[in-house]
Amino acid sequence: MIITVLVAGLCSIVYELLISTTSAYFLGDSVKQFSLTIGTYMFAMGVGSFLSQYVRERELTYFVGVEIVLGLCGGFSVPLLYLTFPDLDNNQFQYLTLLLTFVIGLLTGYEIPLLARIMKKYYPLRSNLANVLGIDYLGALVATLLFPFILLPFLGLFRSSLLFGAVNVFLGLGIYFFFAERLSSRAKQTLFAAAVGVLLLFGLLWSRADKMLGELNAAAYPHPVIYGEQTPYQQLTLTQNNDDLRLYLDRVIQFSSKDEYRYHESLALIPAAVAGRVNRALILGGGEGLLARELLKLPELQELHIVDLDEKVFDLARRHAGLVQLNKDALRDPRVTTHPEDAAIYLRNDEQSYDLILADLPDPGNESIARLYSDYFFNLARRRLTTDGVFATQATSPYHTSDAFWCINTTLYAAGFNETYPYRVNVPSFGLWGFVMATQRPIDPEQFRADVPTRFLDTATVNRLFEFPPDLKPTSEYAVNRLDRPVLLDYFLADWSKWQREKAVH
Q1: Which of 273, 357, 410, 433 is most buried by a 10 A CB count?
Q2: Helix locations, 147-184, DSSP H
Q3: Around 218, how many Cα atoms within 13 Å sit in the side-chain half-sphere?
Q4: What are 34-88's pLDDT values in tens digits?
């Protein structure tokens, strides 16, 4: 029974981590998702504990039944979320995650008092409560260690859900066999049949997991998937359609080989031209090597450091033939040094100065990324620049996420930059895309001369990129994005929700 308490506590916390992470992957705003999940889970546990008082007898029968139902709900939670997401809008999907969380919390709250009552035969009340609660919390600790270091990187969300659902059912079966003489014959038949049925369902889903995930991925991407990998940080996916190679991170497109040069030339070569002589440069993000490819065209460049959180992105850029061809094997250039670590931590600990720093980071769809657009982060970058150095960042779409774009511009001022220069580029795969360049000295970004080979940029083109028509100009004052108040996330999600509602109407 003590082992039962440990495993029961472990399984329930794993379910909550799985649901929270899945909802954060699909809906963004991880703080909101984890907060809603934890709050709903704790409330539901209270409801379950309250309801358990109405079990007057047959605690063992009820407990085994709860374990089987809990295993079914928890184990099937992630597959259900994966299967229903394409057909639900964001609000419907959010309600489904909360319903699953409530049911799992209800059953968890129900099982703990039952365990305490079953164990009263073996321990006095004081020891009994100490054992149940103490070991249950220990199970929660084990779950929080297993989830990020073993389950997510090696099994992924889908199979981890099935595995722990099966563990919960086996837990119920273990109690079933250990205390078989205390169960009625009818209860034994019903419980055993239910447990076997759930385990068969999980076995079927496990055997078809690759095919189901492949079909879900195929439905999520417009082109055939040629590579997929779940890393400890994100889902990496490559698709290809004839000569169009695309990289997605957590289902969000990062580039298309058909037009990526427009994006990467604009982010790399315009700031490099106004920076003057770039001897040492730093790229934050950009682990696929495409931005590095552009900077390596500069003949004076001596050192290029690339910081990307996910080492698997560097590995993919070095070994995948399509990516190597596209980035011209940039990561093997002797001038390049890669650093698989968090960009903010790198800037905080780094002591070098750079003539050019480029931030090619994902869109601020959750708090962990939104902090990389904060005044704190931009100030760290500013302090690593030489006197005449230039910082530039991708800044989302000035059309689809206009408020987020201008918030980034405002935040750069707040971080201590004296001058900012927003500009925009039409990248067909993304639509209209925005960048902001920041310096301590006035510059004339329109005096661009392409001293290196380009496919998109020339002087006339660059002059137009810094012009914003009236419908793209800022419409109000924007708050500064800070670590303790990531307003950029609010702007970004609000902007996108408007387009999602419009799409739903049509």
Answers
A1: 357
A2: 156-178
A3: 7
A4: 899 999 999 999 999 999 998 878 888 888 899 999 999 999 999 999 889 878 8
Question: Would you kindly state where each structural domain of the chain is located, as residue ranges?
Answer: 2-215, 222-254, 260-505
Q: How far is the first Cα of the chain from the last one, in angstroms, to the nearest whole number?
A: 56
Take residue 86 and report the two structure tokens written for it.
Answer: 């394409």
DSSP characters for 188-203? HHHHHHHHHHHHHHHH
Distance of alpha carbon 357 from alpha carbon 268, whole angstroms: 9
Nearest to 282 by CA among 202, 350, 219: 350
Length of the chain: 506
* Nearest Cα residue to 290 out of 317, 272, 316: 317
Give me 418's structure tokens: 């004296």
Catalytic residue among 29, 136, 308, 360: 360
Spell out the long-range contacts of 208-211 with Cβ–Cβ below 8 A and sequence spacing 24 or more. Answer: 209/158, 209/159, 209/162
Model confidence at 128: pLDDT above 70: no
Distance CA 19, CA 24 (A): 8
Q: Is 360 a catalytic residue?
A: yes
- Residue 405 CA neighbour count, 13 Å, CB half: 23
In angstroms, rounded to a whole number, what is the distance separating the alpha carbons of residues 309 and 369?
Answer: 11
Q: Which two tokens stand for residue 272?
A: 């490099």
Task: Say how far apart CA 80 and CA 3 lie, in whole Å.
Answer: 29
What are 195's two structure tokens? 């447990």
Query: Token pair 């100065």 is at which residue?
Result: 353
Please give the Cα distance from 65 to 183 (Å, whole number): 12
CATH architecture of 2-215: Up-down Bundle (1.20)
Q: Is the pTM of this model over 0.70?
A: yes
How many Å separate Cα 189 from the centre of its chain?
Answer: 44
User: What is the dotted CATH code of the domain comprising 260-505?
Assistant: 3.40.50.150
Angle between helices 59-84 and 209-220 (to 10 degrees): 40
- Distance (Å, whole) CA 376 – CA 483: 7
Gap between the Cα atoms of 394 and 364, Å rounded: 11
**Paired residues of 343 in beta bridges:** none
Label residue 121 by pLDDT band (50, 70, 90): low
Phi, psi for residue 185 in degrees, rounded to 5 = -65, -40
Beta partners for 227? 238
Backbone angles phi, psi at 249, to 5 degrees: -115, 120
At residue 44, the pLDDT reads 95
- What DSSP element (H or E) covers 336? strand 336-339
Pairing label, strands 280-285, 252-256: unpaired
Do residues 116 and 132 make contact, with C-beta atoms less than 8 angstroms apart? yes
What single letter denotes the amino acid at residue 294?
A: E
User: CA 250, CA 104: separation in Å to the nearest integer?
Assistant: 26
